[in-house]
Amino acid sequence: MCVVAEGVERADQLTYLQDQGCDKIQGYLYSKPLAAKDMEQLLARWESSGVAAACMEP
User: Fold this and answer.
1) What's the whole-number mean pLDDT along residues 10-36?
2) What's the DSSP call for residue 30?
3) For residues 33 and 50, what is the distance between their CA atoms, to the nearest angstrom?
4) Is the pLDDT confidence value at 57 over 90?
5) Residue 1 and residue 48: Cα distance in Å, rounded?
6) Helix, strand or coil for residue 50?
7) Are 9 and 31 in contact (CB under 8 A)?
8) Highest averaged pLDDT of the listed ranges 16-20, 43-47, 53-57
């Protein structure tokens, strides 16, 4: 099972969830809600930085 935490806003929440083995995390800690065009730009930056590869499931 893959566990996704939503609504993560603070670093202490992220640390707790990682310590508990949470697989994926989303929330304001990473980004506020974005328009589709802005989201495409964010994903392109993540892909070029190597973050996207680290987030892919094996």
Assistant:
1) 92
2) T
3) 22
4) no
5) 29
6) coil
7) no
8) 16-20
* C-alpha span between 36 and 15 (Å, rounded): 29
Q: What is the mean pLDDT of residues 28-49?
A: 88
- pLDDT at position 52 is 58
Residue 52: what residue type? A
Please name the residues in contact with 13: beta carbons below 8 A apart, sequence gap of 6 or more: 5, 27, 29
* Predicted model pTM: 0.62
Is the Cβ–Cβ distance between 27 and 9 less than 8 Å? yes
Q: Where are the alpha helices (DSSP H) in the chain?
A: 11-19, 36-49, 51-55
R_g (Cα) of the chain, nearest Å = 12
Q: Which amino acid is at 41?
A: Q
Q: CA angle, corner 29, sides to 23 and 13, nearest 5? A: 60
